[in-house]
Automatic annotation (TrEMBL):
Domain of life: Eukaryota
Alphabetical keyword list: Metal-binding, Repeat, WD repeat, Zinc, Zinc-finger
Residue span, RING-type domain: 25-71
Ranges for the WD repeats: 540-579, 673-712
Species this chain originates from: Tagetes erecta (African marigold)
GO molecular function, one term: zinc ion binding
Full protein name: Uncharacterized protein
Protein kinase domain residues: 143-466
One Pfam family in the UniProt entry: zf-RING_5
Record has Acetylation as a keyword: no
Length: 832
């Protein structure tokens, strides 16, 4: 500068200062001052007060922090903290010179960010998914044994490495479990899109009615509350038969094994002990407001301490057998065979027959007293033996046939005659010293459920057979008897009866064929096509070697290939409109840059970079051609990325470096970033940060402002070479050669996922959908659902199988573009 040159600084006058609002901290919204809210300048240029910088959450990466104003990741001095950052002297000077001119600022309410509206419809609501995802056991938890009958199977636990919920704590490796079938999904073998394990399980649940879901949740939660109820461990989907099962622990010993048959005489002390255990089990069932109304000895098991518990899976099996016989209008002999195994209460039988369309009128409702009928029948079977079972079989058979014939009015007289016979049999078995026991057991068989005794009354009577009341220290421990209309009968609910209705997911035309929710209908979209099983595929052929990259912009799809060319395809009709030629080596990467003149930049493994102008008509030659310096380590360009706002594009090279090229300065090399120990094969740009992935297994973060290093990821737990990166708002995804995917959400790492069985060559994010593909020739679709703070749920929705290795992915306006090693590009979209 010569002595005649002058520099003029524009200083605001007092009137301008008075019109300004006082500068404030973007975090606490308090005006800056020299004492409590001293402004400190971050690398991005924004100022934040000292106090807020100290109290900000601990940075996830070493020596970095996210600016509260622009969310950009910037360098931060550790451990000195904000005191090592420069004060904003100019800001303090303005504040001090006109502190009285600024109006006092009040905290401004933060405007909520407008939520991103997905153009891909949700298969289920986030609330529904959050409610049920933790109840679904992992795919490899259970090994299925031979099926016992049409509704229940047995299996064993083979894998407990990832317990998905607290119910899993009751299981042990190699423990036997019983599985009750809830519903099934029948897919189409011709579908291009194959839904994943969790997606199928969730969809079976999603198709069930509220009644069924309520009962399933009631059983699962009851298992957590009462130890006398055999624990339901969760839900498990069997890929072999496409059924969703409820998994319950299976104990080795059942009550049938202890008390073999009813014709064996039982001593009174043994009878009393069994009776007390049964009463305690039924009482705990009522504590969780569950009623059965039809049980057999097979429904009860015995644990290692001799305590009796109830197996709800077996209860549903017994109820299903009864239901099946009545649905088929079984003959008298068939019903007799059923009653030999169970003792359904009269009111339950009446409800079963009523559900078959027989018009019946009765004031008897199924409630807590219905379980007293079954309990009384089991106890009388022990005391009286086979004669009781035979008489009861005849009564219930005749009772059921009268119901089917519409003669319900005769049933009460039939019951009175049967009860007289049972009373006589009981008198012949017990002497006068057991008069109270006889009256109580006969009362259990009352026709009116409301006149039956409480469970606690039976329990006290059983205990008195063992301990004299005057020596019983627990005589004052009164249990509140269960009574009222708040109970739920499992055998009358939708869980059992919907097995013969439409709750099964058996729609061959597609999983979402019958949905009427308008929020799930979006025109011409990939996922909509998936849901309707109308997914179409278009093959783009034009390359002569492996596809190496895909980019979209300006209304065109650009594809690079090892055949040294870049093809340009029209997105309107998917026709090939032009081919860029000129590379002398394999084209390894390309990127589209939105600028005044749109650009396509391509790089090859010989180190040449071609800049192509995207305007019609297309030119045959690039308007700019660059070369990297070569040395003995050199193996060409492996990755490209661009920041259109700053006018810089980046190359990842075989010489382990990342280079920045200025598009505003005749495409000159402006910076070289070193740090990686091997080839830089993937790059991504997002929110002021450049991410570089390398064969050395690490990801390095660089500031876009000054290209300074910010952090290194992957050094502490390497997963092999990083082959692909994608960054979207607060999410970073890295794909590795060992088939694992690592995700960072808001800078917090999630548990790595083994999504593929081998190398993943490409990943892509669009909204909440994550696509990945690689060596196993399959594109996996996962859904990313944000929770509170840094929580992110990752759910595998399904996959699209291909014929060749997946080498490149892109998603645009409802269409998925997949580049393959066999020279083809497949375009998946919704069909007509």
């Amino acid at each position: 500068m010569c002595k005649h040159d002058f520099v003029y600084f524009l200083v605001p006058d007092r009137n301008t200062i008075e019109a300004m609002e006082a500068p404030e901290c973007p975090v606490c919204l308090q005006s800056f001052d020299h004492k409590s809210t001293i402004p400190r300048v971050l690398a991005c240029g924004h100022s934040v007060c000292e106090t807020c910088l100290i109290n900000l959450p601990k940075p996830p990466f070493p020596r970095t922090i996210r600016c509260p104003a622009c969310t950009q990741l910037v360098t931060y001095p550790h451990p000195q903290g904000p005191f090592a950052l420069p004060k904003n002297i100019d800001l303090l000077r303005i504040i001090s010179s006109s502190s009285s001119s600024f109006p006092k600022s009040n905290p401004k309410p933060k405007t909520p960010n407008s939520s991103f509206q997905d153009f891909i419809p949700n298969l289920w609501s986030h609330e529904f998914f959050s409610n049920w995802k933790d109840w679904v056991l992992s795919q490899d938890t259970v090994l299925l044994d031979t099926s016992v009958d049409g509704s229940v199977s047995h299996g064993k636990v083979v894998n407990l490495k990832v317990p998905t919920n607290c119910l899993m704590k009751c299981l042990k490796r190699n423990q036997k479990v019983s599985l009750f079938k809830l519903g099934f999904y029948r897919g189409n073998d011709e579908d291009r899109f194959r839904f994943g394990y969790l997606a199928k399980a969730m969809w079976v649940l999603c198709k069930m009615g509220d009644g069924v879901l309520g009962e399933i949740e009631l059983i699962l939660r009851a298992s957590l509350m009462e130890y006398r109820i055999c624990s339901a461990c969760g839900l498990w989907y069997n890929e072999d038969d496409d059924n969703l099962y409820m998994v319950c622990e299976k104990r080795e010993t059942s009550l049938l094994d202890v008390v073999v048959v009813y014709d064996v005489e039982v001593g009174m002390s043994s009878f009393a002990m069994i009776g007390m255990e049964l009463c305690e089990t039924v009482s705990q069932l009522h504590d969780v407001e569950l009623v059965i109304g039809c049980t057999s000895l097979s429904c009860f098991g015995v644990d290692e301490f001799g305590h009796v518990f109830i197996d709800l899976n077996e209860v549903m099996v017994v109820g299903g057998r009864l239901q099946k016989l009545l649905i088929e209008f079984a003959q008298n002999d068939d019903i007799k065979r059923l009653v030999m195994d169970a003792f359904p209460s009269p009111e339950l039988l009446m409800q079963f027959v009523h559900k078959q369309g027989v018009d019946l009128e009765s004031t008897c409702v199924v409630g807590y007293g219905s379980d007293l009928w079954s309990l009384g029948c089991i106890l009388l079977g022990f005391l009286v033996g086979k004669s009781f079972v035979e008489e009861t079989t005849d009564f219930l058979s005749s009772y059921t046939l009268k119901l089917f014939n519409g003669n319900a009015c005769d049933c009460e007289g039939l019951h009175a005659a049967w009860l007289d016979k049972i009373s006589g049999l009981l008198d012949s078995r017990l002497d006068s010293g057991y008069e109270s026991l006889k009256k109580l057991l006969c009362k259990c068989l009352s026709y009116d459920p409301g006149s039956r005794p409480f469970v606690s009354d039976i329990w006290k009577c059983m205990r008195e057979l063992i301990i004299s009341p005057k020596f019983d220290v627990t005589v004052s421990m009164e249990r509140k008897p269960a009574r009222g209309s708040t109970c739920h009968c499992l055998l009358l609910g939708d869980l059992l009866w919907s097995q013969y209705k439409t709750n099964k997911v058996d729609d061959k035309k597609g999983m979402m064929n019958n949905l009427t929710d308008e929020t799930l209908v979006v025109g011409n979209d990939l996922i909509e096509g998936v849901c309707k099983n109308s997914l179409t595929c278009t093959d783009l052929k034009g390359h002569l070697d492996c596809i190496s990259g895909l980019a979209i912009g300006g209304g065109f799809l650009f594809s690079s290939s090892f055949d040294k060319t870049i093809n340009v395809w029209s997105l309107q009709d998917l026709n090939l409109v032009h081919t860029f030629k000129g590379h002398e080596h394999k084209v390894m990467a390309l990127v589209f840059v939105e600028s005044e003149i749109p650009l396509c930049i391509s790089g090859d493994n010989g180190g040449e970079i071609f800049i192509w102008g995207i305007k019609l008509p297309f030119e045959e030659k690039p308007f700019k051609r660059l070369n990297e310096e070569k040395d003995w380590r050199y193996s060409g360009i492996h990755a490209l990325a661009a920041d259109s706002r700053s006018g810089i594009f980046y190359t990842g090279s075989g010489d382990k470096s990342v280079k920045a090229w200025s598009m505003h300065d005749d495409y000159s090399l402006s910076c070289t970033m070193n740090g990686h120990k091997s080839v830089v094969c993937t790059l991504a740009v997002s929110d002021g940060v450049l991410y570089s992935g390398s064969w050395d297994g690490t990801i390095r973060l660089w500031s876009l402002n000054d290209h300074s290093p910010l952090a290194v990821l992957g050094e502490e737990a390497p997963c092999g070479s990083v082959l692909s990166l994608v960054a979207h708002t607060n999410t970073l995804v890295a794909a590795h050669e060992n088939g694992r995917i690592k995700i960072w959400n808001k800078d917090v790492p999630l548990t790595p996922m083994s999504t593929h069985s081998s190398s993943i060559f490409s990943v892509y994010i669009e909204g909440q959908w994550l696509f990945s593909g690689g060596w196993n020739k399959t594109v996996v679709v996962q859904k990313l659902t944000s929770g509170d703070e840094s929580q992110l749920d990752v759910t595998e929705i399904g996959s699209v199988a291909g014929d060749s290795v997946v080498t490149a992915l892109h998603y645009w306006q409802g269409r998925l573009f997949v580049g393959h090693a066999d020279r083809t590009i497949k375009v998946y979209s919704a069909g007509g």
